[in-house]
Predict the structure.
Amino acid sequence: MDHKGYTGASPNVICCTHQMLTIEDLPIKGKTVFLRVDMNTPIDPLSCKLMELNRIQEAAVTVRDLSASKVVIGSHQGRVGRDDYIGMEQHSEALSKILGKKVKFANDIFGPAAIREIESLQTGEVLLLDNLRFTAEENMEFSPEAASKTVLVQKLHSHFDACVLDAFPTAHRAHPSIVGFSYLMPTCAGRLVSKELKALKNIALVSKAPFTTVLGGAKVTDRLEAIDTLIANKKADRVLLCGLIASVFLKAARKIDYDIGLDKEQQLVGRAAGLMSDYPDTFELPIDVAIHSNGERKEIPVSELNPHTKSFDIGSSTIDHYSRIIRSSGTVFMSGPPGLFEDPKFGLGTEMLLRAMASSFGTTIISGGHLSAALERFGIKEWIDHVSTAGGALVLFLAGKHLPLMEALDRYEAKLKK
Ligand code: 3PG
């Protein structure tokens, strides 16, 4: 397929600042399409099973709309070295059930087995490749041109006619599957990207000050990177900290004085200290936390934390204080769970702050798979204005950062215009 194959239909997804192409804009009937989705799902550490199906259900929407093509799906799952770094077999079973038709599983990414499966696909058939992060390159960031020269892209691109980018939660990663294929072939947005951008545009129209951002979870670096821009762009008048990121700020505020065991810890703590001095009245830190004590939850003041006690949740005084701020906010955005809610002993912080959001009159946005799973568990999902599939990517998007996936979509659209 070359660019002359473009149908000329008017691009029909309007996002905040630009238009982008979608499935109807590319002539992909009977063609082989690489569909990059994000089916990265929280995994139960004990059973190794998928904990929820939200991102897989969202991916299914685009797969269904590509039923006139041969669809090769790529996704990552987890991060190297973590419990959630597993293959995609369970995802293919879940997707098969949702679609009501067999999704083939390659058990390979770009080797002979995968190529054979891709070449034998018939129109309407769907093949899922294995966890793209099983290849080293998919764990690294590249410029689009360099990504197009990676082994992953070089081995596969000639088997694809077009690329559909739908991995909104991975929009902030310049990985080969996001920016490499799209550099070489006609590329458009999938349904989830369109849906998220539309919802976020509508949210932007109704959201009002004061803005409160609640940050938790284990992914510190992305969130730290984005806080500055969120505050500067008036998207975070108050920042309520929980989880590992709270430990970084507690250390920066000298409320704890031992190593918290993070890569680049010194750098992160220095950055947190800088942010607190630049924006002195913005950050709220936990007053108390919950720790393990003889298999039970025990709450202690932050001042009693020591290198041998690990905090797994915020404590009741912190929950009260944060809930009050949430209820008096015009807009509340939460990214990353406040505690290890998968363990019922440490679910209180997550449940109570989510309930405060659900009962607030402000506009509410929840970000990421873990919080979406928590909302399902507590039965309050419908009370939240927008539940985004994205975690770190959404924080960066709201902060106004340029995201590689959006740039890849823009690039192809601009190429066509030329
Ligand atoms: C997410 O869950 O935020 C996305 O799947 C991206 O995952 P990553 O932070 O491991 O790149």
User: Anything to note?
Assistant: The chain has two domains: 11-195+402-417, 209-361.
